[in-house]
Structure formats: structure tokens, C-alpha cells
């Protein structure tokens, strides 16, 4: 091993460039057909053409602001670039950052071991499953996590708080879940990095301060929303980690897989031979980390993350009880996302193993360490075997947007059928979160935000959706009373078990009908609803965050 | 030089293996998410 850089980013822009370019290559390979003109729409990944800043963008409509501030970032990007180009840049940036950041943590100045770590971190079951699940915002935080871990180990130094806060920015853009994952890891690493108790407390306080500042954009609207913080514990078992390999849930988590959704596992992953080979790689990497890297902070963060990831699977009643005590614990419901710090340890460990192979004059073994993640997970390539493809929104959607925008009467838009996710024929039947709330940005869009996982339904969180359900069966009169001006029907099939019928009620005026979408207008004056989040506190939160970040950027000698 | 050659050959092999595996799985499996349309997913 040539050199050690405990917790530091080694110098030499060439090495960073090699890792970044490798990440770019991996991104191009993974996104594949998704790079064509159009949008990749998969589960939670929703991008729309010509996004606009609206109340929804900032979490002011009363829905749970999980999309804040990632939607703000996307909208800002969409104001300077075509939105589909912006989406591709974001997806590629995830791979570039992941590869470069993991490479920077390897205690070696050789390129091959650093690339081994970078490739492993950017190309593994965690990335594949979360990408298929459309959770680009979470992956944005994941991509920068090694930088966060490196900076957290030096939080106690002069300027350490500032450095950490800047490296937390991708996770902050990702929002609630991304910041929870990165923040937990940073806290553990920072506290363990200090020598004396006072030093540890100070480092922990700095991390907590940074997290509090960066959380304000979603924390303030989340706390002020009329429905409060939702506390439905029904999803604990639905979102718990599950086995996607023959090695059980815990084994699958150790291998960086185990996502709750059985349909977002890359094709062919989990077959006994491939899974056994990947498990062997993970075990070797963990052993190498333990033997040659020796960063207790990284190990502790990985251990803590693994425990949280396993909680919903091995102790679901405990997690349900915690959520009952305080709704904020719901962040641990989809626990698998917390194995991200373990991915850091596995990647850095694999890099260290490759470095030792170079020491032993076994360059082929070292090169093999670079390639093995791709070879053992080939179906992440080419848009995850064709699942991530770029599509264009139908013309009827654009026409509906124009009609809704041109109408001057007040009122909201109701979306039917009554379900949150759709499998549009024009999106190759791949499921996606209903895009209309973002697409029809001129008005508040009401949809059923209840999530159905298999036979489990997690209750709706939007107060307007709850009211609509209570008002069913819908008529033109009830729609007027509920403040609805337009009804959009963008699929034909009924939703099994839905309380609200999937077709528009009698008495509405059909203003657009096409194969892809039908738009109806509710005639007459509608009741006005004001269930929105107060604007002033949210604006203040954004000012505080913006000024705080700007101040830290322009005042490099400032300590947090 | 040997490392660079190994990496290059490996990249070509990896790309070939990826492409082949994708073609094989595409030919042998149906998209598991076609139905039902309205679920977030199933375990």
C-alpha cells in the first residue's frame, strides 16, 4: 500500500478525473436507451417538460413535502435546459459522483484500486434497485456519501463544519430520505472521530447544526401542513427489506440489495451462482477493509445503517411502535436505503484489496476487482436491461395543459382513476407515479396518494384526497363542493377496491378526448379551498438556508 | 501497460457479457411490472 490518507481526499486531479470519467462511462452504460430524447419515467422518477415553480414545488399545497427540495432543483435546472436533458444530466451525475467520491476514500494513490472502489460503489444492487424504483433523489445523496463520510471524520478540525455542509449539499437536494441516510452516517462518523468527549460532542453538534439548516426547506412545510406529520404504521411490513438472493433478508442486505419492491430487482440478480460470487466479493471487501483500511467511523456507520435496514424485517412491531410514538421514525420504514454506508465500506474495502493485489504484483487480480461488479450485475446495463427507456408525453397531455391553463375560472383538477401509480401504454406499461400534479402546474391537482403495495394500502396523506374519498360517489354537485373545476381521466381500467370510480361522473362537459387522456370541465362556480401551508415561514426557511450556504461558500475561513 | 491492456480487454468482455445477458433475459422474461397497473409494487 503506497500511501494512506485517513479521511482525506488525496491530491492529484488526474486520479479524480479517471474516476469521474469511469463513472461517466458507467452512467452511459447503465442509462443506455434512457439517453434518447424524452423522459425516463419509472416508479418515483417523474420529470415533466417545461416544469414551473408552483406552490407544489415548494411543498405549499398541503401534501407531504417529500419532493422538496428535489423538485425545486429540477425546476431550476429545467429553466436553463430542456427538462429531459436535465434529467439525463442528473442521472449521469449520480454515477460520476458515486465513482469519484468512493475512489477518493481509498487509502492509496494508485489509480486501479481507486477505480475498483469507484466502480463497486457506482455499480451494485443498491444502485440498480433504487434506480429502477426511480429514487434519483436518494441516489444523489448516496453518490456523495463517501465525501460526506470523509468530511465527517474531520468535522472537529477548523472549517470542518463548513466542509461537511458543502459535501452534504447533494443529499440536501435529494431531500428527506437522502439527508436522513447521509446525516445518520455523518453523525456516527463525526462522533467517533473525536478523541476527547468534548471534541466528540462538538463534532456531533456541528453535524446536527448542518442537518438542521439543510432540512429547513422540507421541515418547515412538513410541520405546517394542515394534516400534520402522517403516522400510518401500516407500511412497516410492506416497505421492510426482503430477500432478493438465496441468502435471506440479512444476507441480501449485506450484499447491498434487499429492496422491498420485488419488481425492481435487476433481472437475473439473485440467481444462486451469481449471488454466491457477489457474496464472496462482499466478504473479501469487508475483510480487506477491516484488515487494511481500519476506519472505525466508517465501520460504525455501516453497522448502524445495517441495523436500521434490518429493523423493519426482523423487528417490525418495534418499528411500528416507534412510529406510533413519533411519526418521524417513519423514515426507517423503507429501511434498505440505510445500507448505503455499508456500500461505502464494501467499495473502499474492495479498493484496498485491489491495492494489496498490486503490491503482490497481481495486476490482473486488481483489474478484475475493477470489473467484477459489472460482470456480476450485467443487467444494470442498457437501461437495466431495457426497463429504463425514454418516452415522450402524448400530445393530448400538452393539449390538456393548454386548456387547463387557458380557463380563467378558479378550481382544482381531479385525477382519475383513483390511484397514485400508473402503467401507461405510451410508457411501455412501466409503472410511474402520476405525473399530472407536476404536468398541469397551473392548478392544484388532487389525486389519490394512497400507496398500494401488494395487498397493503398505506392511507392517503393529502387532506383533499381524504375529503374526495369521503364525498364518493362523485357527482357534478359534489365536485363543485370539493372545489374541482376539471376532471382528468388518463387510464381506462378501474382500480380494484377503489372507493372512487375510475370514470368521470355524469353532468360534466367533455372538453378533450383522446386515446391517452380525457378532460372534463365542471360547470358552474366551485367552492374555494384554502388548505394550504402558510407561505411566509417557508420563504423565511429558504432565505435562511440560501444565506447560510452562500455565507459558507464565500467565507471559506468561517467555521460552523 | 499490462494493466491498461487488462482493463481494456476486461471492459470489452464486460460490455459483451452485459449485452449478451441483457439480450438473453429480454428474450426469456416478460416485464414483471406490466400488471397490475396501479400498485406501487409487490413484495
* Span of the ends, CA to CA of chain B: 48 Å
State the secondary-structure class of chain B. Answer: mainly alpha
Class by alpha and beta content of chain A: alpha+beta
Number of strands of chain B: 0
Mean of residue pLDDT values of chain A: 93
Please give the radius of gyration of chain A in angstroms: 24 Å
Protein architecture, described:
- Chain A is α+β, with helices and mostly antiparallel strands and 560 residues long.
- Chain A is 54% helix and 7% strand.
- Chain A is built from 23 helices and eleven strands.
- In chain A, helix 3 packs parallel to helix 6 (136-152) and helix 9 packs antiparallel against helix 10 (197-224).
- The longest helix of chain A has 28 residues, at 197-224.
- Chain B has one domain (1-43).
- Chain B is 63% helix and 0% strand.
- Chain B contains one helix and no strands.
- Chain B has one helix at 2-28.
- The longest helix of chain B has 27 residues, at 2-28.
- Chain B is elongated and about 55 Å long.
- The chains are: A alpha+beta (560), B mainly alpha (43).
Quick structural gist:
With 560 residues, chain A is of the alpha+beta class. Chain A is built from 23 helices and eleven strands.
Write the layout of secondary structure elements.
The complex is a heterodimer of chains A (560) and B (43).
Chain A: H1 13-31, E1 39-40, H2 70-78, H3 83-104, H4 111-122, H5 125-132, H6 136-152, H7 160-167, H8 169-174, H9 176-193, H10 197-224, H11 235-238, H12 248-254, H13 272-293, H14 296-314, H15 316-325, H16 340-359, H17 363-376, H18 381-386, E2 390-391, H19 395-406, E3 412-416, E4 421-423, E5 431-433, H20 436-439, E6 445-446, E7 451-453, E8 456-458, H21 463-471, H22 476-481, E9 484-489, E10 509-513, E11 518-521, H23 535-554
Parallel strand pairs in A: 3-6, 3-9
Antiparallel strand pairs in A: 1-2, 4-5, 7-8, 9-11, 10-11
Helix pairs in contact in A: 1-3, 1-4, 2-3, 3-4, 3-6, 4-16, 4-17, 6-7, 6-9, 7-10, 9-10, 9-14, 10-23, 12-14, 13-16, 14-15, 14-16, 16-17
Chain B: H1 2-28
